Amino acid sequence: MSHVPESAHSDPHPHGSCSSAEHPHRWRLLALLCLAQFMLIADVTVINVALPTIGDDLDLGGSGLTWVVTAYTLFFGSLLLLGGRLADAIGKLRSFVAGLTVFTAASIASGLAVSGEMLIAARSAQGIGAALMSPAAMALVTALFHGPDRNKALGVWAAIGGAGSAVGVLLGGVFVSGPGWEWVFFINVPVGLVALFGVPALLGNSRSLVAPSGVGSSLDLVGALTLTAAPGLLIYGLVRARDHGFDAPGAWLPLIGAVLAAAVFVAVERRVREPLVRLALFARRSLVGGSVVMLAASGLLIATFFLSSFYVQHVLGFSALKTGLVFLPVAVAITLGAHAASHLVARLGWRPVGVIAFALTAAGAAVLTRLDAGSGVWTDLVPGFALLSLALGTAFVCATTAAMNGMPHEDMGLASGLVSTSHELGAALGVAVISTIAGASLEGGRAGAAAGTGGFDNAFTACAIIAAAVAAVGALLLPAGRPDPAQGPVVAH
Questions:
Q1: Distance in angstroms (rounded) separating the CA atoms of residues 25 and 197
Q2: Which residues contact 439 (CB under 8 A, 6 or more apart)?
């Protein structure tokens, strides 16, 4: 899902050469913009299959590998709202090019990393680039198309999320087993270059698509900083607690810092003239419910990918390629769940669908608690994981449409951005929490063998408990009705 800058919600009519007709290259531009977005989404899942190999090559333990995943989603999610504002302030194309340039350069640096610290820094830069690029790309799509064509374009954009997740897990296995884990990142370079040169060339001199909109010219940098610091400190504290226990000052001091940063964020947003987030929006229960459901769904899904990758490769001894093939039906289940959700929510409403989705998620996670060194991947892992993924695919659509329910036209961009932020931060926080619970079971070699599979059992048990708790919360926060077809499509991962 991507934040849509405020200017993207009007139905602009291009000036200049395209004033009397649609942009002549709009479908080619859509293909390039979707290709770039596909790259960002795939980067969330493609890394999971490569983690054990990266850990061996760069001498990274469970804590370091947690950061390899969370650094990207942390900065991607925390800076999405700022990226949307920047697209309004400096122009959609400039923001897109700047973000794509940073992301592509950071992908090169990730592939060339010779240490864990270098890789984590490069992954952080990838997240910053993604946060600049994704909302600008979405804004270009909404500005290029009008009427029925816009709905078609947004449908294509939405499908990219599921395709990116599914293809990402397969590509991760292919690259790690073939040319090496570095190509998980190097593959972004030709894709980035094609979009980097192709989009400006095809766009031409369409002033309404290139020039700043004049909306949101004041950037809330302090708000963006504290929004990044709060989850960042929380993740750091959890990772430290995993290694040293919660009673260590290195663990609880960052956790206190996270609470303080969150309090500062709220205080700043109340006082600045153009806040990153208008806090009054949180009076809408449907937005809060949708955001909570999205946070939990993303966290549970990515955390389960994270745990399963280590289990399949370290405990069962599968190669990266076989691991990617194991995950492929799971990723397809996400797409099927999202497709089914559109019909289920329209027929049953948000609340029943959300509750059932997380009840099934809890059941799937409960199946995974029985995994041990003698379990079969197709008989024990895949059934539970596929059930969990199918249910969470449904939850994603339920969360997005619920959050946007009844939202005034002028607030849709911000609401969309909040749900997108919840998606990315959920992934970061989910991996941090679950890896802390799994503990030494994530380690390779003797340390992992000595720890056994008890850590995996505990982590999957926590997933089941969290899913059951969210089912109860969803029954309270999700709206009781059904979507209004007149609202049109809502775009999600």
A1: 14
A2: 62, 242, 451, 455, 458
Per-residue burial over 199-230, b if 16 or more Cβ lie within 10 Å, else e, is beeebeebebbbebbebbeebbebbbbbbbbb
- Tokens 């790259």 sit at which residue? 39
Contact assessment for residue 413 and residue 6, using Cβ atoms and an 8 Å cutoff: yes
User: Is the pTM for the entire model greater than 0.90?
Assistant: no
Total length of the chain: 493
pLDDT tens readout for residues 156-196: 776 676 677 777 888 888 999 999 999 999 999 999 999 99
The helix, strand and coil proportions of the chain, stated in percent and rounded to the nearest 5, come to: 80, 0, 20
Question: d(Cα 86, Cα 92) in Å, to the nearest integer?
Answer: 8
Residues of the chain with pLDDT under 50: 1-20, 492-493
Q: What pLDDT is attached to residue 3?
A: 45
DSSP symbol at 281: G
Joined together, the tokens standing for residue 21 give 């007709």
Q: Which DSSP letter does residue 491 get?
A: -
Expressed in angstroms, the distance from the first to the final Cα of the chain is: 4
